[in-house]
């Protein structure tokens, strides 16, 4: 069973290297998308690893903008175009870090073939605070002068928006693990319906609801498992999760999640050292 780990990053190439080394395995390939706003040069030394590949058609990713979805679509298409038969694509960021060994992950995917792992909630009934992301116009993906004023004016003068094609909105977290066929279903569905792509372009945080909305309105909705197996601490409040540190170690050891986010090289350095030891010891215990 082969797995494609897809990493969207712009931050720290050494942290990306550390992530790769932590779960290096002959059955794992790593595809790295470096935000087009940033130079790819600092990352290119990672080519020394035979299972590391760089996404060629890079996108200028904008936080909460539709370009994040465009980048994800480009990555999925490049992975599929390789012709390699991957069982899963694991979509993550450069600030994720593994909590389990490569062998543990392979066993997890083997025992869950046919399931797609992504968090979702109904935006109409449960995640109601996300409704304005869809019902209002947002120019987050643009940088022209006066966009905030124009956005305010348009929303004042126009009625609430609703999704085309009678789709019911679902969403939650950005990252997921699914087989390439279902990922390409989302790509093709959106790109073959221009009215839907135009709608998503003028939303906020589309990366947190495009995949959920398309799949939950598809024939494949019963394959979805409402879990992305990421340990995330939102206790700090605001739009960004807490940067994990050594105080989180015990909780991370106990979780069944496969990855933690988010981490960085400075604040999380000691934690990552301990996680490396924990993963190594767990792998050794499993083999004996």
TrEMBL record:
Top-level taxonomic group: Bacteria
Subcellular location: Endoplasmic reticulum membrane; Golgi apparatus membrane
Matches recorded under InterPro entries: Glyco_trans_14, XYLT
Keywords for this protein: Disulfide bond, Endoplasmic reticulum, Glycoprotein, Glycosyltransferase, Golgi apparatus, Membrane, Metal-binding, Signal-anchor, Transferase, Transmembrane, Transmembrane helix
Membrane protein topology class: Single-pass type II membrane protein
Pfam families (UniProt xref): Branch
Name of the protein this chain belongs to: Peptide O-xylosyltransferase
Phylogenetic placement of the source organism: Bacteria, Pseudomonadati, Bacteroidota, Sphingobacteriia, Sphingobacteriales
């Amino acid at each position: 069973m082969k797995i494609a780990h897809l990493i969207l990053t712009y931050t720290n190439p050494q942290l990306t290297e550390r992530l790769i080394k932590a779960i290096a395995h002959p059955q794992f390939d790593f595809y790295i998308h470096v935000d087009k706003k940033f130079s790819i040069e600092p990352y290119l030394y990672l080519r020394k690893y035979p299972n590391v590949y760089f996404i060629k058609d890079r996108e200028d990713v904008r936080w909460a903008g539709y370009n994040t979805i465009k980048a994800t679509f480009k990555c999925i298409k490049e992975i599929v175009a390789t012709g390699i038969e991957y069982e899963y694509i694991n979509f993550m960021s450069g600030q994720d870090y593994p909590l389990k060994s490569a062998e543990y992950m392979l066993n997890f995917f083997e025992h869950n073939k046919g399931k797609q792992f992504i968090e979702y909630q109904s935006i109409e009934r449960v995640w109601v605070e996300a409704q304005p992301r869809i019902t209002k116009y947002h120019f987050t993906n643009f940088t022209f002068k006066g966009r905030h004023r124009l956005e305010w004016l348009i929303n004042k003068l126009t009625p609430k928006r609703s999704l085309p094609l009678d789709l019911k909105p679902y969403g939650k977290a950005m990252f997921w693990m699914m087989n390439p066929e279902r990922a390409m279903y989302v790509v093709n569905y959106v790109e073959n319906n221009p009215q839907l792509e135009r709608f998503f372009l003028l939303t906020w945080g589309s990366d947190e609801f495009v995949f959920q909305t398309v799949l939950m309105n598809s024939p494949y909705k019963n394959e979805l498992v409402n879990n992305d197996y990421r340990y995330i601490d939102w206790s700090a409040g605001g739009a960004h999760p807490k940067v994990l540190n050594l105080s989180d170690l015990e909780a991370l050891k106990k979780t069944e999640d496969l990855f933690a986010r988010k981490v960085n090289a400075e604040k999380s350095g000691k934690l990552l050292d301990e996680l490396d030891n924990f993963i190594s010891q767990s792998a050794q215990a499993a083999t004996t």
